Amino acid sequence: MGLFDFLKQPDINQGVKQYKTTSGAVLLDVRTPQEYAEGHIPGGKNLPLQDIDKAAVIIDNKDTPLFVHCLSGGRSRQAAAVLKQMGYTNVTNIGGIADYHGKVER
Questions:
Q1: Cα three-residue angle 94-101-106, rounded to 5 degrees
Q2: Which spans in 60-103 are helix H?
Q3: Pair 79, 45: CB distance under 8 Å
Q4: How far, in Å, CA of 16 to CA of 22, rounded?
Q5: CA-based R_g, the chain, Å
Q6: How far is 5 from 101, CA to CA, in rounded Å?
Q7: pLDDT in the model for residue 22
Q8: Coil, strand or helix: which one is 99?
Q9: What stretch of H or E contains 96?
Q10: What is the pLDDT of residues 59-103, one digit of tens each?
Q11: Is 80 a catalytic residue?
């Protein structure tokens, strides 16, 4: 691990690939409903950061693989930390959709 590795943003494109190949995984988009409606990754579930405490309504199994993203990576980092505090054991922050190169739905 290099001195500045903590500055590296996750690669959302790699994260989406990993999500697609992980059985039972959930792609969690923590942007606002308005941002989600403007374009989201197919299969993603919208749970805004301000509602992250309601995650159990969508994901009841705390061992479910969660791949969390937002616009630039900041909110998904916060959401991943909160989810881990809530007891979710398999949470990955994959960064921001702004760097995503795949298909989006509206």
A1: 90
A2: 74-85
A3: no
A4: 10
A5: 13
A6: 23
A7: 98
A8: helix
A9: strand 91-96
A10: 999 999 999 999 999 999 999 999 999 999 999 999 999 999 999
A11: no
